[in-house]
Design goal:
Largest sheet: 8 strands, mixed
Number of strands: 8
CATH superfamily of one domain: Gcn5-related N-acetyltransferase (GNAT)
Distance between the termini: 15 Å
Helix content: 10-25%
CATH architecture of one domain: 3-Layer(aba) Sandwich
Structural class: alpha+beta
Radius of gyration: 17 Å
Number of helices: 3
Length: about 140
């Protein structure tokens, strides 16, 4: 379970068996079109199934190099599972995935993007204009 709160604020609320595990960052941005182009040597696919859009970046051998997904909620989208494979990091693929998802979201009528970021992800998202609005406390149930 994730909630927008500082971890020390919620520990006393947690019933027996629940424990705080880590914290992240609740971030948002007003979406803007950027018409991204895949970095040289990579191709992208974008597929929407139901309310979820998946962006995948493939290398020259057809192997997945990066990915991300978003769920559409009317005028907002929630971005999730943005990952660049270790061998393909530092090549702009994470930013490309984020811009690709944003452009698709705008095409579908969304104007706001929301996500929960790790510390490492937060640095990327801030370079793309995303702002932190709250700490996300993650709790797990371990009876």
């Amino acid at each position: 379970m994730k909630m927008p709160a500082e971890p020390e604020e919620i520990e006393s609320w947690l019933p027996q068996g629940w424990a705080w595990e880590e914290s992240g960052h609740l971030m948002a941005v007003d979406l803007m079109a950027t018409a991204p182009v895949a970095p040289e040597g990579y191709t992208a696919t974008v597929e929407t199934i139901g309310a979820v859009t998946y962006a995948r970046v493939l290398d020259a051998a057809g192997e997945q190099a990066a990915q991300g997904q978003m769920a559409s909620l009317g005028e907002a989208v929630v971005v999730d599972r943005v990952v660049t494979e270790e061998a393909h990091r530092r090549r702009g693929l994470g930013g490309f995935v984020m811009r690709t998802l944003a452009d698709r979201a705008l095409e579908e009528g969304a104007v706001l993007g929301v996500l929960g970021a790790t510390d490492a992800g937060r640095a990327l998202y801030e370079t793309l204009g995303w702002k932190k609005h709250a700490t996300l406390a993650e709790c797990v149930y371990r009876p």
